[in-house]
Amino acid sequence: MKYSSILLLSASLLSAAAFAGSNTEAAVGGALGGALGSVVGGQLGGATGATIGAGVGGAAGGAIGADKRSRTEAAIGGGLGTAGGNVIGQQVGGPSGGLIGAAVGGAAGGALGNAYGDDHDYRGSYRGHDDHHHYRRHPGKGHYKNKHRHRHH
User: In terms of pTM, does the model score above 0.70?
Assistant: First the structure.
């Protein structure tokens, strides 16, 4: 188990280094959460428990490492990535392969989910208005604009 832990850490860091910017934190969170969830789930419930644990841990890790506005997308990406990576890794390399697959899948899923969330935030601002048009019809007057009219007789 010593060598698989070293290999897992190396795979996590290498997969996290592939993503730049704020996505790195979501990738590392998804990788570590997925790997830890895979180990705990495997101890409690075998291969099925490892897959469920990897999904839950990857979702939590991806959400913790993501930006505030894109935590939901990073959690979904991290959960799906770790669960899928765990299943594929178990088929290829047994429990150790599942652990590595969960780490790599969680890193990719968390980072992609965070990137999608960031991209989705910049499409428009609050209430669907375009961010490039900052204007007000009557600046400074509000709903009091017609209160005090002075008529010249």
Answer: no
DSSP state of 128: G
Asked if 26 and 118 touch (Cβ cutoff 8 Å), the reply is no
Query: For residues 21 and 17, what is the distance between their CA atoms, to the nearest angstrom?
Result: 10
- What is the SS3 assignment for 45? helix
Give the chain's radius of gyration (CA, Å).
23
Averaged pLDDT, 96-125: 81
Q: Are 13 and 104 in contact (CB under 8 A)?
A: no
Domain ranges of the chain: 9-121
- Report the candidate in 132, 149, 133 with the shortest Cα–Cα distance to residue 141: 149
Contact 66, 25 (CB under 8 A): yes
| Structural contact between residues 104 and 31, judged by C-beta atoms closer than 8 angstroms | yes
